[in-house]
Amino acid sequence: MKISTKGRYALHFMLDLATQKEGEYVSLKDVALRQAISMKYLEQIVAQLYRAGYIRSQRGPQGGYRLSRRVEDYSVGDILRATEGDLSPTECLHDEFNDCPNASSCPTLPFWQGLYDVVNDYVNNKTLADFMAGHKEGVS
Question: How many CB atoms lie within 10 A of CB 96?
Answer without folding.
Answer: 5
